[in-house]
Amino acid sequence: ESLFSELDDIPLDPHYALKEDFSADTSPSKVILGSGIYRDKDGKPWVLPTVVEAEEIVKASEDSGRYDYLPIPGYAPFYTAARDLLFGALSSPEENFVSVQTISGTGANSLGAHFLSNALKPSAVWLSNPSWVNHANIWKSVGVAVRSYPYWNPERKALDFEDMIQTLTLETTPGDVIVLHGCAHNPTGLDPTKDQWKMIANVCERRELFPFFDCAYTQELTRDNSQGFASGNLDEDAWALRHFAFRGSMELAVAQSFSKNMGLYGERVGALHLLTGSPDAAGKVKGHILRLQRGLISQPPKRGATIAATILKDTTLFQKWLADLCEMSSRIKCMRQALYDELISLGTPGNWDHILTQIGMFSYTGLSPEQVSSMRNDGHVYILSSGRISVSGLNNANVKHVARAIDKACR
Ligand code: PLP
C-alpha cells in the first residue's frame, strides 16, 4: 500500500516513447525524425566549430574558481549579451529590463510561468493550437488554466489567422497571458507575416493580454534564408518580439534558448527577460524572480553560459557563429527541397508545397495518425503522431526511403 497508489498513470512523453520504439526496431533501414536536434549530413550530432573555439578560450582562462557557484541571476556577461541579441538597440536604456540565466528555454518558460502566475494571477494562459507540448505541461504545473487559440488550419495547411484573431478578441480576459513563438513556430514551421504580427500586437494591446514570447529558434533559421542570417541579418528573427517591445505600450516576457542555435542542448543555456514599464517595476520584478530562482534551482550552471558569452561578446567568433548558423539552415533547406522533389517524382497524392514554405527545423506534414503508424509499420520511419517531422534528421542517405514511406502511407 502506498499514498501514491491512487495517482493517475501518466504515459511516457511522446518524444521519449518514440525513441524507445525506434531503439527496439532492428531494421537496418530505420529512420527517426523526432526531436528538434540538429544532425549533420551523415546523421551525426554536430558540435559547432565556433563552440569548439570558445571552449578553448574558456579553458585557457579557467582558474581554481571554475567550479564555484554563479550568483543567483547567473553569469552577467551571458545574460546581458543574450538580452542584447534579442532586443538589439532597444536593450538600452537598461533600467526597465530584468534578465536572468535559466536552465535553457524550458527553465525560462517555467520560471516565467511561476512568476507570471503569482504576479498577474491570470484567469488563463493562451497557447497556439498546436504548440510545443511542454507549454501546457509547464502552465498546468503552476495551476493556470490552459486555453488554446486557433493557429494551424489542417485543410489549408496554413495559418488560421482570422479565427486566431477572433478567439483572442472574443474569448480572452484582460490580464491573461498569451504565449507566442518568436519565430520558426514549433511544431508547424509556420509564422505570421509582419502585418499579421502587427494585428496580433493590436489585439494584445486592446485586450490587455500579457505577451510571453518563446524564442527557442530565434537567430537560427530566418524566414528567408536567402537573406536573413546568410547576410548576418539576425534582426529578422527577432522582428516580432522587437515590434511588440518597440510599441512601448506593453510589458512582456521572453524565454530564450541557446540549445538549437549554438547546439548546446545538454549544457542547458538560456535566459528569461522581462521588459517592464518602469525602473521601479523592474526592481520589484527582479526581487520576485530571484526569490523564485533561489527556490527552484538556487543558481544556474556555469560552463555553457561562459561558452555562449564568449561567442556573443567576441566580434570574430560572433561572425563565425553566423557562418555555423548558415551551414545548419542551408542543410535543412536543402533537405526540404530534396524531400519535396522525391515526393513530386513519386507522384505522391496531395499537395506538398508547405514542406518548402515552412521554416525552421520542423515540417508539419499534415499526415494523419494512421498514415504515421503505417510509415512506422511498413517503412520503419518514426515520426510523431501529429505528423511533425524534424527535417534535420534527413540526409542524402535516407531521404528517398522516407519519401517512399510517405508515398506508400498516402495511397
Ligand atoms: N520552446 C520551444 C518551442 C521548443 O521547441 C523547445 C525545444 O524543443 C524549447 C522551448 C526548449 O528547449 P531547451 O529547454 O532545450 O532550451
Structural commentary:
- With 411 residues, the chain is an alpha/beta fold.
- It contains 14 helices and 13 strands.
- The termini are far apart.
- It has helices at residues 14-24, 49-61, 76-87, 104-120, 133-141, 161-170, 194-207, 239-247, 279-296, 303-313, 315-346, 353-357, 369-379, 399-409, and strands at residues 31-32, 97-103, 125-129, 146-150, 152-153, 158-159, 177-181, 210-215, 252-257, 269-275, 362-364, 381-382, 388-390.
- Strand 5 and strand 6 form a beta hairpin.
- The strands form four sheets. It has a seven-stranded mixed beta sheet, with helices on both faces. Strands 1-12 form a two-stranded parallel sheet.
- The radius of gyration is 21 Å and the shape is globular.
- Residues 220-232 have low confidence and may be disordered.
- Bound molecules: pyridoxal-5'-phosphate.
- Residues 36, 104-106, 132, 181, 186, 214, 216, 257, 259, 265, 270 line the site of pyridoxal-5'-phosphate.
